[in-house]
């Protein structure tokens, strides 16, 4: 009997227990509610299996086919089943109880045998890789979360629980598998001044509001705007982020006075040696072991390297800093007492209740900036993983923004500081085999939570420099070295944008870097296109709508885009004073893009009309003709649209341009 059927039987059989036990006994209603909750969880397991990375299966109908009930009754009833003929069963509807039981049973069977078929070696290997990758990333999250907590001015526990809550919900509802989210430096820098001026409680309110903004922006489809980010900006973002991560890791090789350890000192030798040992194990040792031993393939190199380095450092008693030394012993004391409280802190809630508008005015600028920065970094990480993980899938920008918003909202309700996707840890996850299932990001949060509560003392003994060694390798692999070799071969503007975005990312923050790079790239593109318009002069035969045939009319054949950047150059292409009385402007090799272009066409026609000459516009699309007529309001226009057909493009810059496809023009 399946779990759902057992729970349903216990739920429906409660009246018997009531007879056997006194009504004042408090266990009966509690047990009924508990059984009901478990029943709901069991029959919704198909949804759970979907979010951990396997394609969803169609949910069976609430009332399965009647033939199924006949077969089920025949199998369950032994000889009685022979009495149920096909004619009888085809007209006998199942009872409500039979429908519920059959539906719950079919859902349970689907969950166990199709979506989570652990007897399949491929799926079993896939889920195991996702779990081990999540374990490896959970270790790499600890130093980042702790260091970002210090930047924000809060307890390290706040940063760790932010990583747990945000990481779980962002992985569950995010745009693609493989992305790992945590408290981030980009978001922490934004809200550090808020914590300094109003306290850590306002950080939770800011994270909650930022999550709501991200959810609204995601539902509005604003994540698609990431498509306008050019490739040089992406390269500059990746390189700048690599330098930021490198700068953050170098602090682990410094003493309390801010100076780097000497190679000759015992502490320096142990620190550099542990980091170097971890890097060698991750890059060479563990992969070579996996070639020799099949079972070793289940262990990610990052996890194996960190664990082996920690054991060696502990065995030889190397004088190096551990996580407990950096974050404090109370952070890794463990136990249920360190679990976060659900709800906004009183230090924020009381001022908000007393003066909501004033409180919102304080946190709104920080929340808006945090939402923008977090969304940009998360969406760029999404694009980066789309190019790295070869699983035939493309991430959803809409779901990623909504997932990040839900994660930030939940982290704020648990007193967290908010964050976004981390490119370094996401790359570790992808390289460890966790990029094929959402289970990796969810298990990262679960393993980290278990480590904080149950294995905190053991987790606190991991050397910080061992994790720093892993991050140094991530910095090396993240940095885009290819464009450096192409300097001098790619356009100078693209090379400048790469350097500019890298500099602004390191010096300021990611959001400003992306905006500056995108605007610079757009202006450069507009300037380049503004010099690409020209016109050749020829003579053509023209049959005007009225009047005689003109066998030899001067024609300006315009080439290139006509928009705000080329409108002035377009006006200088014509010799109005010396041209004949009839002139053709041919747009066959040109495209009209905006209102500035329409205004330029109207102005040149007015110039010809002022001297008594007439212009014929050839191959101008119907929507352009309609808007051009609206622009010209002073009497009859000094032009005619000729030789326009349905093959001419409808450019779409006009509002509801599809309405103009049937405007009558002269053929």
Automatic annotation (TrEMBL):
Signal peptide as annotated in the record: none
Database matches in InterPro entries: Membrane-Transporter-like (IPR052706), SLC26A/SulP_dom (IPR011547), STAS_dom (IPR002645), STAS_dom_sf (IPR036513)
Record-annotated STAS domain positions: 543-628
Subcellular compartments: Membrane
Main location class: membrane
Membrane-spanning parts: 125-143, 150-170, 202-223, 229-248, 269-286, 406-424, 444-474
Keywords for the protein's UniProt record, in alphabetical order: Membrane, Transmembrane, Transmembrane helix
GO CC aspect terms: membrane
Membrane-protein topology: Multi-pass membrane protein
Matches recorded under PANTHER family: SULFATE TRANSPORTER YBAR-RELATED
Name by which UniProt lists this protein: STAS domain-containing protein
């Amino acid at each position: 009997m399946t779990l759902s059927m057992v729970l349903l039987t216990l739920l429906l059989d409660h009246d018997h227990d009531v007879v056997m036990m006194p009504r004042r006994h408090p266990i009966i209603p509690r047990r009924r509610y508990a059984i009901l909750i478990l029943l709901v969880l069991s029959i919704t397991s198909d949804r759970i299996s979907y979010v951990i990375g396997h394609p969803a299966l169609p949910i069976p109908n609430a009332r399965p086919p009647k033939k199924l009930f006949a077969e089920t009754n025949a199998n369950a009833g032994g000889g009685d089943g022979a009495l149920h003929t096909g004619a009888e069963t085809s007209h006998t509807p199942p009872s409500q109880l039979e429908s519920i039981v059959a539906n719950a049973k079919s859902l349970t069977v689907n969950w166990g045998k199709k979506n989570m078929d652990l007897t399949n070696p491929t799926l079993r290997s896939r889920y195991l890789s996702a779990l081990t990758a999540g374990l490896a990333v959970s270790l790499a999250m600890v130093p980042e979360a702790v260091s970002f907590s210090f930047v924000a001015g809060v307890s390290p526990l706040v940063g760790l629980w932010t990583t747990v809550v945000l990481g779980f919900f962002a992985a569950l509802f995010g745009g693609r598998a493989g992305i790992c989210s945590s408290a981030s430096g980009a978001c922490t820098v934004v809200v550090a001044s808020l914590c300094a001026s109003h306290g850590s409680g306002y950080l939770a309110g800011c994270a909650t509001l930022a999550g709501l903004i991200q959810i609204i922006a995601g539902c509005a489809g604003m994540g698609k705007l990431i498509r306008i980010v050019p490739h040089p900006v992406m390269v500059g973002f990746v390189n700048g982020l690599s330098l930021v991560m490198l700068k953050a890791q170098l602090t682990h090789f410094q003493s309390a006075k801010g100076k780097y350890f000497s190679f000759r000192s015992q502490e320096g030798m142990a620190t550099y040696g542990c980091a170097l040992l971890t890097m060698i194990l991750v890059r060479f040792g563990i992969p070579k072991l996996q070639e020799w031993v099949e079972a070793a393939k289940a262990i990610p190199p990052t996890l194996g390297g960190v664990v082996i380095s920690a054991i060696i450092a502990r065995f030889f008693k190397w004088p190096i800093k551990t996580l407990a030394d950096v974050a404090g012993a109370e952070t890794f004391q463990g136990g249920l007492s360190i679990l976060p409280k659900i709800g906004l802190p009183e230090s924020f809630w009381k001022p908000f209740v007393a003066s909501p508008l004033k409180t919102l005015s304080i946190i709104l600028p920080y929340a808006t900036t945090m939402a923008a920065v977090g969304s940009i970094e998360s969406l760029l990480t999404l694009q980066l993983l789309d190019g790295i993980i070869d699983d035939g899938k493309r991430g959803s920008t809409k779901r990623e923004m909504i997932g990040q918003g839900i994660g930030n909202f939940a982290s704020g309700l648990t007193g967290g500081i908010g964050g976004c996707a981390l490119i370094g840890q996401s790359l570790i996850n992808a390289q460890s085999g966790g990029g094929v299932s959402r289970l990796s990001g969810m298990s990262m949060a679960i393993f980290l939570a278990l480590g904080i509560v149950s294995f905190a003392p053991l987790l606190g003994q991991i050397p910080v420099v061992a994790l720093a060694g892993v991050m140094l390798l991530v910095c090396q692999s993240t940095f885009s070295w290819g464009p450096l070799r192409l300097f001098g071969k790619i356009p100078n503007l693209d090379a400048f944008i790469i350097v500019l975005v890298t500099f602004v990312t390191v010096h300021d923050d990611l959001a400003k870097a992306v905006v500056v790079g995108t605007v610079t790239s757009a202006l450069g593109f507009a300037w380049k296109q503004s010099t690409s318009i020209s016109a050749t002069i020829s003579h053509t035969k023209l049959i005007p709508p009225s009047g005689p045939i003109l066998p030899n009319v001067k024609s300006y054949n315009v080439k290139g885009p006509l928009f705000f950047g080329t409108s002035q150059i377009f006006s200088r292409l014509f010799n109005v004073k010396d041209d004949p009385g009839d002139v053709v402007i041919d747009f066959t090799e040109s495209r009209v893009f905006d209102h500035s272009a329409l205004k330029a066409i109207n102005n040149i026609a007015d110039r010809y009309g002022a001297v008594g000459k007439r212009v014929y516009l050839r191959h101008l699309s119907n929507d352009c003709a309609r808007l051009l007529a609206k622009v010209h309001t002073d009497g009859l226009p000094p032009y005619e649209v000729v030789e326009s057909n349905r093959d001419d493009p409808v450019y779409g810059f006009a509002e509801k341009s599809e309405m103009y496809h049937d405007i009558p023009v002269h053929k």
